[in-house]
Predict the structure of DUF4034 domain-containing protein.
Amino acid sequence: MQQPDKQDNIAKAQMLLATRRFFKLDEWLLSQMRGWQNQTETDNAYGLIMHPDTLFTKEESAIHRLETLLNWEQQCPDSYHVHCLLGMLWHEQAWVIRRGKGQQQEVEDAQWLGAQLCCDYAVLSFIRAIEYHPRPTHAFRHMMNLAGGFGEPYWLRDLFAGRAPKPLHEQFNIENSLVWQQGAAYLYDLGVVPASQWPQQLPDVLQQTRRDDEEAIDYWLRMAMSVRHHDVGSMESYLLLHSSYWGGDDEQQYQIIDSPLCAEFSDDERNQFRANALLDALQGEIADRDSPRASQLQQRLADLLSQPLEPATRIALLDLAGTCIAYWHDDDHAGLQVYSELFAVSPQAMPGKFAALFISRAVLANAQQEGLSVLTSLLVRAINQASDPMLTAFAATAVHYGLYGLPCDPELSNRLMDRAWQLMQQQRSTESVSKDLLLLAHDMALNDDMEATHYLMTEMARRGSVVHSYELFFFYRDAWHLDVPPSFHNDSNALDCVLSAARSGWVPAMFSCANALREGLGDQVDYAQAMQWYQRATDAGHASADYWRASCALDLGSELEKRQAVEQDLPAIIANVDHPERFAAAYTLGMAWMQGVGTKKNRYIAWQMMKFVLELNPESEPAQLAIRQLEGSLRARMSLWQDKRKVEGADFTAAYRQPSSPSLPDEEEME
């Protein structure tokens, strides 16, 4: 009778959980566990099934998952599996809290506390799981992972030391603090209160098993390996905790792999461990050329590639190695040869994004024409697989013109471009992929394929890529990264593109659109629209748009608008010491007073502002020239003196200075 495959077993487990047949699920998982524990079934899905992300759908919330597992625990209180899964769920929630909703660099104290409170529940669950099965591999392994990421709770350390742990409120006097309230709120959101009472002794299986001063992750690994010998998953997790992400490096991992800890693993398994360590090294900061480190990594790579490896592992190594080899040998051709070897692994072998960008740069931008076959292989596979939006769009462009070893097929090109755009939307990667495609467009332009460059950008813009619409604005104006042939220059097209990007909410396009309308792109100045776009850019967070709006008002606005720029807008910018246009605003305001734009002319105030400009930038030649004009002759100094008397010598720049900034020169110095 044919055995069910992994997907069938996963589907069965999901169905039993969804229909809440917990006794049946527990019984079935125990039957699956036997073969996995004894390592007699190579295709056993038990290890994959034993995770909340496998058993639940992505749409099911943490609260729903917790409710389901607690219901399972209520019906089967002695279930090893439900306690393991609860521990994993609580561990994952600790990471969710630790990571937070944003990408802040520092974790707040309340986040740490909330994560630790989740870890308390995770450890309690794993401890119960250990009590209910003689070979609790998953519980031991996940205790190791938790200890590596968050450390052991104080109460568990006390139990191992033979001490009765104190309740939480006695150990830490924080229950009435703001941090406690904020940290505990993470658990209240899940419908539970923080645990406060701990076991008074360890399970029998853990009694007297820990060596003096044994690190937590070493202990839990030893326990996992004692019940499931040469357990690959446990060792992979242990090695990962010694990777660069956790403050280790590949040297530590190699030492472990070559130590007695890995003696029971096969050569193939140890090679896989070495490959993982080398992948960790290759995707980190690249070693300096001609350094001992670079030589060591190349030797390790050569040694591994000479061994039997899983195709996916070989492809991953070659994918990262290509750009490294090119750098270490200072030779693009050496890197291209690595990717040629990658393509030879299997007909489906594909490199990642950075390798693809390297191949494009080497062959097109750096004219390594002997590597054209590598680029052709890349694009052919991109067409056959059509799963990567960047490569699919690249291939569509090449097919449209019959470039880079591909036949000319405009119909296929259009289908591929549609597919690329569909993938970008499905993967929510429109902006990032669009930026990568700009790099490819640049490479094609350097290879004198300007028509193809234009085609790629216009087809992406036509489908809705704001990034490409904005880029075409510069392309049509011959303000792109490279010189654009005159046949492409078109102010009307440029204005249409920047307006399209601005209307789509692209903030840099709003600013550029305002500048273009102010300049009269297309032979027509549109002051009103320019001012609107400057304001929209300012409201959207553009750092400099408010200054340029004020300067536009001084150039083209009504007397009322010019007066507002002089009296309100420019002073507000100068008062902001962090504003990127503070220096420009001070000079512009000085010139307004000097020329009487938006205000009555006053040379003394203009002189003060120009002195202030020189405080901000002593090398400013325009400010130095203005000072010479204001005090360079007897007539100029007399006018300066007269204007000073009109304002009674008031210091109009005092409000803009830092307390430690120098004051204006006194009257004698001015004279």
Summary: The two ends are 107 Å apart (CA to CA). Confidence is low (pLDDT under 50) at residues 666-671. The CA atoms of residues 38 and 426 lie 42 Å apart.
